[in-house]
Amino acid sequence: MNAEMRELYQEAILDHNRRPRNRGSLADANRRADGYNPLCGDRIRLFLKIEDEIVKDVSFEGAGCAISTASASMMTQSVKGKSVAEAYALFEGFHAMATDDGERAGDLGKLEVFCGVKEFPARVKCATLAWHTLKAALTQPADSTTTE
Amino acid sequence: MLTAGNALELRAQVENESCERAFDASRARLDFPILRHRIRGREIAYLDNAATTQKPQAVIDAEMSFYTSECSNVHRGVHTLSQRATASFESSRDVVRDFVGASDRKEIIFTRGTTEAINLVAQSFARPRLQPGDEVLITEMEHHSDIVPWQLVCQERGAVLRVVPVTDSGELELEAFHRLLGPRTRLVGIVHVSNALGTINPVRDVVRAAHDRGAVVLVDGAQAVAHIPVDVQELGCDFYAFSGHKLYGPTGIGVLYGKRELLESMPPYQGGGDMILSVTFAKTTYNELPYKFEAGTPNIAGAIGLGAAIRYLGALPFTAVMRHEDELLRMATEALSSLPGLRVIGTARRKTAVLSFVLEGVHPHDIGTIIDLEGVAIRTGHHCAQPLMERFGLPATARASFGLYNTISDVEALYQALQHVEEIFR
């Protein structure tokens, strides 16, 4: 198999696409945001339960390509239990990595599997959709919905 | 050089004698310089012709020649260059007239493309005529460019937009069409060949039925003109719109054919230079057809390039080209259908040059990215036909579309690349 292809479709991405984590709605969510990428039709709805400035729980619904599904799945795993400030910092870090823009603050751990998308400009939005939706959910007042 | 006119004659002659001239796609391929490039070390398998076609050297040369030896504005100057530019520009209009079988060069309006041509009809023909409660009838397989202009004008005029559904195989539901065609139907907008499914619509029958009910018909021919013969008089349509860039010509140039008496009765679409005979602050007299609808300096090089593209196509044995494209579509459909989990979307009895498909468990975007790494270019997404995607319950499809320069090697490259997609996602 082509090395570039392997670089983009890493095993972790394929795994999260096959078995997305934290998928479904969240009954006691107090933040919700919708993300939509009109270019490819990918849709995501993100549910967050935030208490004392901590992301207590998070889940997502939606349909999309492997990159956007895996990104949403791994995003939920990485922000669960984090403070709002930490989650926001992760957004910044992920965005910088995927777009190859801005200062890389440090290693993003498991999320580094998305490093390959910057070589595929048409796919960057697939990887960042869930993160932009997270940012929208974090910056909105509690109990409201926005569409990114 | 063969003009489009005598090329058409020649084509008819060849068809009459039923001894078809041979067509060699791998030789024609050499006329398209971009196809000599390699992507990631591989020959390009360009299968995105429904989005835009590549341009033969003849078209590139024609644009180049305009800028290097004729560049000037048209219809204005008394100097030599302007006369040359005007002659070239206007000769393209004649080539287009012959190409679509219009009876009068005044019926050929140059536009930016299909989209502008349709908007012109929506704004200049439909808008002044539509009364509240009047109806515009379109089909479920229209491109957004044959939906939104009608929505805009219907909303403004209080008219109703009605939609003819399509069958599971992607054919027009003719019974529904006849049922929906009513006494209030003022205009029917129909795509000649669906860009997302490849379906060839029975335009002649649609036109006849519409005319019986007193409705005019606009045909969106963007995906048709490069792949099937088009004769506007034979179709009987009132308006026919197409783009240069899907016909091996340049981007930014297109054509609206309209019946002369209708065009005469319509107010200008845009105001400006070239579309007037005289201007005072009290009153402006509009220019005659076709200039009434060509405000401002046109895309002169584009029109000349479009003429060159039609001449290029006219010099090829078109019946054999069509047969070649049909054969590619047949082989690709057969090969891809053998892949596990692959489903062809659009299986109409009459199809041309477009193969839409989905692969179970793999989003079209992932297909597109992976096969691009093997030099295979296809389109993935909703193909600017979101209502049609919704009808099939799909967010998107992958679409391979063929042009005259594609060969069996391109089909093989597509097939092999799709096998690799399966390997990754299995």
Topology:
The complex is a heterodimer of chains A (148) and B (426).
Chain A: H1 3-8, H2 11-18, E1 31-37, E2 42-51, E3 54-63, H3 66-79, H4 84-99, H5 124-139, E4 145-147
Helix pairs in contact in A: 2-3, 3-5, 4-5
Chain B: H1 4-17, H2 25-29, E1 38-39, E2 42-43, E3 45-46, H3 57-70, H4 80-100, E4 108-111, H5 114-129, E5 135-139, H6 148-157, E6 160-164, H7 174-180, E7 185-191, H8 203-212, E8 216-220, H9 232-235, E9 239-243, E10 254-258, H10 260-265, E11 276-279, E12 284-286, H11 300-314, H12 318-337, E13 342-345, E14 354-359, H13 364-372, E15 376-377, E16 379-381, H14 386-391, E17 397-401, H15 408-425
Parallel strand pairs in B: 3-15, 5-6, 5-7, 7-8, 8-9
Antiparallel strand pairs in B: 1-2, 4-10, 9-10, 11-12, 13-14, 14-17, 16-17
Helix pairs in contact in B: 1-11, 3-11, 4-11, 5-6, 12-15, 13-15
Explain what the structure shows.
- The complex is a heterodimer of chains A (148) and B (426).
- Chain A is 41% helix and 20% strand.
- Chain A is α+β, with helices and mostly antiparallel strands and 148 residues long.
- With 426 residues, chain B is α/β, with parallel strands linked by helices.
- Chain B folds into two domains: 136 residues, Aspartate Aminotransferase, domain 1 (Alpha-Beta Complex), CATH 3.90.1150; 256 residues, Aspartate Aminotransferase, domain 2 (3-Layer(aba) Sandwich).
- Chain B has 15 helices and 17 strands.
- In chain B, strands 4-10-9-8-7-5-6 form a seven-stranded mixed sheet, sandwiched between helices. In chain B, strands 13-14-17-16 form a four-stranded antiparallel sheet, covered by helices on one side.
- The N terminus of chain B is likely disordered.
- The interface between A and B is medium-sized, with 22 and 21 residues.
